[in-house]
Amino acid sequence: MTNEPVIPDFGQASSCVSENRFFCTDWVRDNWGPVLQPRLIEHIELVLIAVSIGFVISLAAALLAHRLRLVERPIAFVSAVIYTIPSLALFQLLVPLTGLTVTTVEVALVSYTILILFRNILAGLRSAPPEVLEAARGMGLTPTQTLWRVELPLALPAIVAGLRIAVVSTIALATVAAFVVSQGLGVPILGALRDNFKTEILVAGALAVGLAFVADGILVLAQRALTPWATSRRTA
Questions:
Q1: Rounded to 5 degrees, what are φ and ψ at 172?
Q2: Is 234's pLDDT higher than 60?
Q3: What dihedral angle (degrees, nearest 10) is formed by the CA atoms of 36, 187, 206, 157?
Q4: Burial (0-12, 13-18, 19+ Cβ within 10 Å), 119
Q5: Is 81 helix (H, G, I), strand (E, B) or coil?
Q6: What is the pTM assigned to this prediction?
């Protein structure tokens, strides 16, 4: 079997499928292995690669802007301009350079994460109270030690908040990748829209929404584990 979307064979399909009812459990059962599960895995891979690369770039840019304020505006301006470009238009601009490839998709997805992550990481780094930084200097910590022991730990809530927004938005944007490459949950969604097949639209869309909820929940739990002091302060 191929991983291409299964268009219902109305000549041999069940009555639910042939009549295109609201939801057909037999179609989901028959197409989970060859269609839905592979597309879900591809979608997760697209998102993980994009957010990981975007986070590394954004962290480096934020650390630079934290030390050299004069580079903050150029970085923020460029990332904001890219963020305002509609996804399909950005894909179209990239295709002549990188072709109809996963690289085109990833470059676009990474670009959209940078503005969100850069601003949140930088805001988190600058959220350390002056008296805490003064105490760190009084203890003899170097600027690098202060960054790793004080500023970055205190910035974690803002960093994770940025990651939550970036991950959820990237999950949504990755569905548009189906216009460029045959990967991700956008493939069955587009196929179902083309054929007006209700079950496939519902299931593929629900998988994308469910993936966003699960990813956000994981990041919330990670934030609570990494910043127990913030949780205890809120409940006090």
A1: -70, -45
A2: no
A3: 100
A4: buried
A5: helix
A6: 0.84
